[in-house]
Design a protein that fits this description.
- The chain is α/β, with parallel strands linked by helices.
- It has a single domain, classed as Rossmann fold, CATH 3.40.50.
- Helix content is about 35%, strand content about 10%.
- The chain is built from three helices and four strands; from the N terminus they run βαβαββα.
- It has helices spanning about 20-30, 50-55, 95-110; strands spanning about 10-15, 35-40, 65, 75-80.
- A four-stranded parallel β-sheet has the order 3-2-1-4, with helices on one face.
- Helix 2 (about 50-55) links the parallel strand 2 and strand 3.
């Protein structure tokens, strides 16, 4: 969904900010320097696999804010509308890394030319 067409994209998730931070990191790597991350979840938690898979492409994790505290300057992208996910902390490390890589690659394809 879009609040405004110009400005920087705001990626919003409902799972603590991990997906939003992943998407904003990929977007920044692709040239959207002002991309931001937010969550509608009460708790903010970016899993370590997000940091790892962003580093693999030379990107960095972005800070996550609560969605209610952010004023969008561009398109608001609700990530729960995309077919991407991260695994729960109780899952195995290799499985979590694999899911994060798949999510990163899907985000990159959606945002790329």
């Amino acid at each position: 969904m879009s609040e405004a067409k110009s400005g920087s994209p705001l990626f919003v998730d409902d799972v603590g900010g991990g997906l939003a931070s992943l998407a904003a990191g990929v977007a920044r790597r692709l040239g959207h320097a002002g991309a931001k991350a937010a969550t509608v979840s009460d708790a903010i938690a970016v899993p370590s696999e997000v940091i790892t898979v962003l580093a693999e492409i030379g990107a960095h994790v972005t800070s996550v804010a609560h969605a209610k505290d952010v004023t969008p300057t561009g398109e608001v992208i609700n990530l729960w509308e995309w077919s991407i996910y991260l695994l729960a902390p109780g899952e195995g490390e290799l499985e979590r890394l694999s899911a994060a890589r798949i999510a990163r690659d899907k985000i990159e394809r959606r945002l790329g030319p």
